[in-house]
Amino acid sequence: MLQFDTTEIEKTPRADLLTRHTKKVLKGNSAAAIAAKLSRVSLVTAYPITPQTSIIEEIADMISKGEFDAEIVNMESEHSVFAALIGASLTGERVFTATSGQGLFYAHEVLHAIAHMRLPVVACNVGRPSFPWNIWADQTDSISQRDTGWVQFYCESSQEVLDTVIQSYRLAEKHKLPVMVVLDAFYMSHTSENVYIPDQKMVDEFCPPREKTDDQINLKHPKAFGGLVGPDIYDKYNRLHWESICKVEKETNQLGHEFDEAFGRKYAAVEAVNINEKTKKILVTMSSITTTARQVVSRHPEVGLLKIRLFRPFPKESVLKVLDTVSDDCLIINIDRNFPGETEGAMMQEMKRALHGVPNKIFGVFAGLGGRDVSSKTIENILEVDFRAPGAEQVIWVT
């Protein structure tokens, strides 16, 4: 039987780097706040919305105590939150915010502007339902923004939240793309776990200050910034954005390798567990469901796990590389904690697109919507479904 290694979730630093970390028990929201401080963010804009609010509260507390050298501005709406970040980012500041649910929806227009103005904004979204609404875990809010031009990472643990925010500034500022770091409401935002906090010098070496460039506001050399362009320029804007997006998957893997060398914790666009030529079924997961699936997979040697960390742009090449090792009769089962108003969940859609032409049969499962718990028993129930039966549904609901 496979052994379940909890250090993989804790992302324990290598022994030679442990002394440069402080181990604390933190919620995911606290990890996000500390990551913003370690990244030397200079401006934070905010509007409260549960279950995101404590991220901003903790940032405000650190600023008031002189522990975080930044300005925080309370805005009148989430639309204004992101609009203010446009102006600050145009001046070359490193900026941050956090939101959730309807707050993210209200900012939808500005998300497009930030992406197409090529501004390296980093924001955390604590995923919750839209309507009918509650404040439990659901990824429908962030999934609904997948076509705004933002890079999206989905985190499994509080440690991953902290580490991903730091990596996101490197990625965002190199390619001039905004990044959304997503964590599940309550399972991650309001429950605590071990987190290794690196010392400030480690982060400074990995994530140096943002460079000043000619496309930023410079009072000595005034420029006009506007959003009205003709078709020829609009086409060019989108082509340049596309060229950068095409580099994100490779850059994510490279950054994960560099982060491992610097901090002793490895990341990539995807993670494969127990996937090889003997694997009969593969569960595809994102965020906190992954942790539960790991435990179940450890009891089933014939079942593999594919964790999607980078969701937008979808890491097609990384997924195909992982699946290149499995037999043609291996089943791919996608677990979606989102309902995009379609016959299939968003992960199912993206995997079908990525695997076009691949012989493996692919199935979708809706599970955990609205914060419904996805227990080990739930995962076991999914594995017990006879997807090979004649007339088996391609998409099912599990409760």
SSE topology:
Layout: H1 7-10, E1 21-27, H2 28-38, E2 43-46, H3 53-64, E3 71-74, H4 78-90, E4 95-99, H5 101-106, H6 108-116, E5 122-127, H7 140-143, E6 151-154, H8 158-175, E7 179-184, E8 192-198, H9 200-206, H10 231-245, H11 248-263, E9 270-273, E10 281-285, H12 289-297, E11 303-308, E12 310-312, H13 316-323, E13 331-336, H14 346-354, E14 362-366, H15 376-384, E15 395-397
Parallel strand pairs: 2-3, 2-4, 4-5, 5-7, 6-7, 10-11, 10-13, 13-14, 14-15
Antiparallel strand pairs: 1-8, 6-12, 9-11
- Major sheet size, sense and barrel closure: 7 strands, mixed
CATH topology of the largest domain: Rossmann fold
Oligomeric description of these chains: single chain
Number of strands: 15
Instruction: Tell me the number of helical segments per DSSP (H or I, 4 or more residues long).
Output: 15
What is the name of the CATH architecture of the largest domain?
A: 3-Layer(aba) Sandwich
Instruction: Kindly provide the name of the CATH class of the largest domain.
Output: Alpha Beta
Low-confidence stretches: none
Given the C-alpha coordinates, what overall shape results?
globular
